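QA checklist item 7 of 12: single-chain prediction sanity check.
[x] sequence parsed
[x] length recorded as 199
[x] structure emitted
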Amino acid sequence: MFTLKQAMFRPGKAALDYINGKRISYYNVFYLILLLTAFGIFIENIYATATANYISYIEPSVSSPVLDILGKYVKFFLFLAIPVYAFNSYLLFNKKKYLYSEHLIIFGMYFLGIILITLFQNIIMFTEFVESLAFIADWSSVLVAFLLFPYIVNGLYGAFGKNYTKIGFALRTAAYIILMFLELRLLAIILKFYIKNYH
């Protein structure tokens, strides 16, 4: 629980503690990622079964092949994100000359928090089956986006904020977030190409 709490509320500082050898209180970050990912898949399977059983109570949603693949393999794509986004921080936030492997640990700690936030969304989605609460499920993606943005900024500041001026940190953070969106856009383009040519 200590590691999860730290990953949720102070991921940047917790990652630096871990890198600096203060590991007695921390559970292995990547083992926790695997455990929570498995739990997330379990929750998603329950939700999928419930949706199949009670589909008549749910408004049909418009989907697309790209969104279908992203939904089906979202955990796989998130795992791919760890080395990519760690490389982003290695390029943009390396005044202290951290090794790439240390940036992997830093983003691994962020990723743990991101999984916790997405698990929160998965659980919220069950409100879809209660008519009076269905609006909460409809707004869950907006809520998650609202939580993720400050979470990432807070994590970056905890890990790297003291190494830069406020303006320098803000510019690097903006570049980091832009890179994230560009990489996600590139992934969408690759998926569209794959669907068009192989499906």
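[x] summary fact logged: The radius of gyration is 18 Å.
[ ] second reviewer sign-off
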